[in-house]
Amino acid sequence: CGLHVHMSKAALRPLTIGRMQVFLHEPSNAPFVEGVCRRTFNRYAKSIAPKLTDHTDRPDRYEALNLTNSKTVELRLPKGSIQPATIMGTLEFCYALIRFCEQASNACLTTKAFLAFITTDAMLSDTRALRTYLVTRGLADAPSMKLPKHNKKAA
Questions:
Q1: Among the four residues 13, 28, 132, 150, which has the most C-beta atoms within 10 Å?
Q2: What is the CA radius of gyration of the chain?
């Protein structure tokens, strides 16, 4: 069972979608992406070798970032959960991924740059659950995630 997240295509520029593809499928980002999603790439959420121009409909809906839907982009990789912290962390990851890919340079689509981005003042209020989730999952250290003091125990 998967926690598939649909994001409106109308709100996304083609370059943003291309950057999302590159970030998600970059081999050096795989440990982070798979850690956030709690699942490895698989036959229902395949990894591809995308280019920045991969932002139009692709023929296979079973890619980690499915572009075959007419109105949405679907992240298929996250494993299903009934845990509120996991669900919120996953949703905030999707939101942060969009915001990151809107502004990141094509050369900086890295885990390190993403982690720095989610701790900027502009993103702190929108990524509290994600940052806590990353620390809890061992994907980031608490001091760098700027967690409120009462949330540090979650690590």
A1: 132
A2: 15
Alpha helices, DSSP H, located in 64-106 = 84-103
Gap between the terminal Cα atoms of the chain: 26
* Spatial CA neighbour of 75 closest among 114, 15, 17, 136: 17
Q: pLDDT digits over 74-96, tens only?
A: 999 999 999 999 999 999 999 99
Q: Which amino acid is at 76?
A: R
Distance CA 96, CA 126 (A): 8
Q: Return the closest-CA partner of residue 37 out of 23, 53, 55.
A: 23
Q: What is the pTM (predicted TM-score) of this model? A: 0.89
| Nearest alpha-carbon partner for 18 in 52, 48, 57 | 52
